[in-house]
Amino acid sequence: MRLEKASHKAVKYACLNFHYAKAVPTYSIGFSVFEGDIWCGVVLYGGGASVNMPTKFNLRNGQYLELNRMALNGKQSSTSKVLSLSIKLIKKECPTVKMLFSYADKGQNHFGTIYQATNWIYIEDIKSSGTEYFLNGVWKHDRGRYNWGVDFRKLPKRKKAGKHKYVYPLDKSLTTICKEIAMKYPKKLSGVVESNADSRLDAECVATTLTPLM
Fold first, then answer.
1. In this structure, are 105 and 151 located in the same domain?
2. Which among 3, 34, 83, 92 is least surrounded, fewest beta carbons within 10 Å?
């Protein structure tokens, strides 16, 4: 398996075809994933919109990134290896970054299986906020609803389910504070299927004992 910098064309195709959100997020750097000669999709990192990162961890802009998309087609041999390799590239390509963070969307029955398998630290259960509308088979945040080209008032709606927040310190000096605020990993309820791009992910996480990436 190898990762290399992704073109915007590859990013757009993967996000629109391999990810449930069917949208291209704002990103700072992206990597294409290859299993041999087979292209498997992209991994994207961006500045993110976490307002508490600077205050909680005393970080400035440019010192943290959000893992904001893993848009994969399932042809990769290991999703956790994709994540591990992408982190190594972030260390190389973005040397000022001290912290990574990401979210697992409770509205999609995501619990952060991949983050738990790769030793990220769970720090926050973010409660629901705002409203989502069901459009073209996808629950969409109400942000941008006036640009959808439909009368959103007639669409099915629900309160947002909230998210699980994980962090991954790249700078060892941040490890202690992360562990001080760490919470127990959220667990899937019996019978709940986590809707992941890689259907093999749960089996992989159960069968593999992973060493810390740090």
1. no
2. 92
59 and 7 inside one domain: yes
Rg, C-alpha atoms of the chain: 17
- Note whether 143 and 48 are same-domain residues: no
51 band by pLDDT with thresholds 50, 70 and 90: low
| Contact (Cβ atoms closer than 8 angstroms) between residue 175 and residue 213 | no
| Cβ contact 115:73 at 8 Å | no
pLDDT of 212 higher than 50: no
Structural domain for 147, as ranges: 128-161
Which of 137, 175, 176, 130 minimizes the C-alpha distance to 155?
137
Q: Record the tokens describing residue 111, joined without a space.
A: 């619990």
Mean local confidence (pLDDT), 42-49:
88
**Integer Cα distance of 69 and 212 in angstroms:** 22
CB of 114 closer than 8 Å to CB of 87: no
Name the E strands within 162-209.
163-169
Would you give the DSSP letter of residue 171?
S
Do 39 and 14 fall into the same domain? Answer: yes
> Model confidence over 9-19: pLDDT tens digits?
999 999 999 99
What mean pLDDT, rounded, does the chain reach?
A: 83
Instruction: Give the global pTM.
Output: 0.77
Task: Please check whether residues 176 and 156 belong to one and the same domain.
Answer: no
In a domain, 214, yes or no: no
Gap between the Cα atoms of 182 and 118, Å rounded: 15
Q: Indicate the number of domains in the chain.
A: 2
- What pLDDT is stored for residue 49 in this prediction? 66
Residue 188 lies in a domain: yes
